[in-house]
Amino acid sequence: MVASYPLPEGFSEFDVFSLGSCLLVEGLLGFFLNAVTIVAFLKVRELRTPSNFLIFSLAMADMGISMNATIAAFSSFLRYWPYGSEGCQTHGFQGFMTALASIHFIAAIAWDRYHQYCTRTKLQWSSAITLAVFIWLFTAFWSAMPLIGWGEYDYEPLRTCCTLDYSKGDRNYVSYLIPMSIFNMAIQMFVVMSSYQSIAQKFKKTGNPRFNPNTPLKTMLFCWGPYGILAFYAAVENANLVSPKLRMMAPILAKTSPTFNVFLYALGNENYRGGIWQFLTGEKIDVPQIENKSK
Length: 295
Known about the structure:
Elements: H1 13-43, H2 50-78, H3 84-119, H4 125-144, E1 153-155, E2 162-164, H5 171-206, H6 215-236, H7 244-254, H8 257-266, H9 270-281
Function: Receptor for all-trans- and 11-cis-retinal. Binds preferentially to the former and may catalyze the isomerization of the chromophore by a retinochrome-like mechanism.
GO molecular function, one term: G protein-coupled receptor activity
Subcellular location: Membrane
């Protein structure tokens, strides 16, 4: 059965198996860790605060990325995409929307932490829910545009998963890429950078650092930076000149973000970590009720 499907151009049997295995590990590990984060929020009353709701929302987005990776892993082991062109469009939309939502919620958490530590104002439920609804609707809008012709979804180089098609690099692609990147990546990176810089200055003055404010931005750049570089390279040069294996590194790195985010925002948050421990063991840990008190 496997032999009836030719290998994607530029990949060996070992390459396909290795990339599929990476996607499977990323998908299952990210799904499990974010599922625990989500269920803990729903089950442990002490976790249900507006700030933790943003972490819960990030976990929802990241679980969607992990599901997307698991489907891609299954297809990689088959060595072909079994769901047809409509399935490719659905897979591309779902993956793109959850990825954009994840980036937005990372910025929202940074914004909330800035107010938590620098202005001493706490997030209200009305603001948290409004922000979450706006993020999902906003990312759904940008992710739906390729379905109606502004941008396009197509196969990744491995041809077992789908995303925004950067292979053409034509006017349609560039006209979509630039505003999409500004509103869904550049602004978010600025919010993350400026928020944590302000927090770092606050920690320096007080001499009481509670977490490393440089880690969130570094992690964000590690996971999503290669995708951004590839996308903009495709706007000025033929992306097909880049090795297919090298192009596949961008989605592989991006799909590590759900796992990193759990350790940064759920397990790295003393209050949330205690709630997860209570959910898993039934043992309650008393921690100061200061939202987003993180390492």
